[in-house]
Amino acid sequence: MVFTIYGDHWRKMRRIMTVPFFTNKVVQQYRFGWEDETKRVVEDLKANPKAATEGTVLRRRLQLMMYNNLYRIMFDRRFESEDDPLFLKLKALNGERSKLAQSFDYNYGDFIPILRPFLKGYLKKCQELKDNRIKLFKDYFVDERRKLLGSPKSEQQKCAIDHILEAEKKGEINEDNVLYIVENINVAAIETTLWSVEWGVAELVNHPEIQKKLRHELDTVLGPGVQMTEPDTAKLPYLQAVIKETLRLRMAIPLLVPHMNLHDAKLGSYDIPAESKILVNAWFLANNPEKWKNPEEFRPERFMEEESKVEASGNDFRYLPFGTGRRSCPGIIIALPILGITLGRLVQNFDLLPPPGENKIDTTEKAGQFSMHIMKHSTVVCKPRKV
Ligand code: HEM
């Protein structure tokens, strides 16, 4: 769906994906799973004494958590550990895709057509990787679920792919569409949310006073040691502000996804021919010094003070981390609670600190074709709190 041209096919795909993925019912069904995954992260960190002294590359464990959060929704499955062979295979193939999509080769041929013949090798690699990924999704996940659904004893709780397979059975979509839905979720949901969690952790480590203020909010609103759950988010304005500020300064998809005008259009004094590729610099809109007070500063308070009416859902054109309108991100309904539970529980349970001998973690950015993520997956010291 992500790169589909606006029209009947996109409308159908978006409709078919809504019930299984993008409703409040889904959040209420799966939030216990997300809370459980974060609990396991906390337990694993506490069981690793080095995490409290030398530190640990937190991202690796959070990546497993994010896969589990989404694979629970999709297939009612989870991976037990970072060494699970299937998880490793999946991570490697998705990682390879991400690398190819971020390479310069990705689109220079769009702009300099004469160079297109030189892309043959790159395109062959893309095709092979695509075939391997689709085969993995099919053999290990989709076909497994088909078998389960076909068995008379199946009393499993319905998961997202069951809804999608129902649509296939009714003839609304075909098998390729089913596999591309799985592919899209792997690309659009897991890494984007993971990058945002990683940025949030980095900013909290580098701004200890903000981390302390957030911890104070969690302790006073929930009571010390009471583990945060999804419905608590509504009572935690500072946590919400920390998330908004992370998504503003460290926007995961800074140029959104390329848009296309179907018809000739006029924008200001410019004529935009039909079918132009339009990139929206959403990062600049949210970091323009003429529109924001000291935009370079990580200051969650802005979302409780001068920008208190601004929401991530696109009610203000200066702040569009998930886009706006018909093509905006439907995953916002899942992403925001996962970000809240993860950052909330980490801050409740640990002092998050830079590694020994350093006073900050490195927040150099790395930009891909569409993404902006942290260059270095830093070591973070997670010192358990005595509650
Ligand atoms: C912090 C996490 C996330 C961020 C920052 C993010 C951001 C975005 C952005 C900027 C777009 C393009 C909007 C546009 O071009 O106007 C998008 C599209 C999309 N996102 Fe997300 N997203 C996140 C998480 C998720 C999750 C968790 C899911 C699914 C469970 C998801 C599914 C999608 C889909 C399917 C589209 C394409 C929508 C369409 O073309 O109609 N995203 N996302």
From TrEMBL:
Highest taxon of source: Eukaryota
Cofactor section: heme
EC number: 1.14.14.91
Pathway recorded for this protein: Phenylpropanoid metabolism; trans-4-coumarate biosynthesis; trans-4-coumarate from trans-cinnamate: step 1/1
Localization (cell): Membrane
Presence of keyword Metal-binding: yes
Residues that hold heme according to the record: 329
Catalyzed reactions: (E)-cinnamate + reduced [NADPH--hemoprotein reductase] + O2 = (E)-4-coumarate + oxidized [NADPH--hemoprotein reductase] + H2O + H(+)
SUPFAM superfamilies membership: Cytochrome P450 (SSF48264)
GO biological process, one term: lignin metabolic process
Subcellular location, principal: membrane
Membrane topology: Single-pass membrane protein
Keywords on record: Heme, Iron, Metal-binding, Monooxygenase, Oxidoreductase
GO CC annotations on file: membrane
A Pfam family it matches: p450
Gene Ontology MF terms in the entry: heme binding; iron ion binding; trans-cinnamate 4-monooxygenase activity
Similarity field: Belongs to the cytochrome P450 family.
Name of this chain's protein: trans-cinnamate 4-monooxygenase
Organism of provenance: Zostera marina
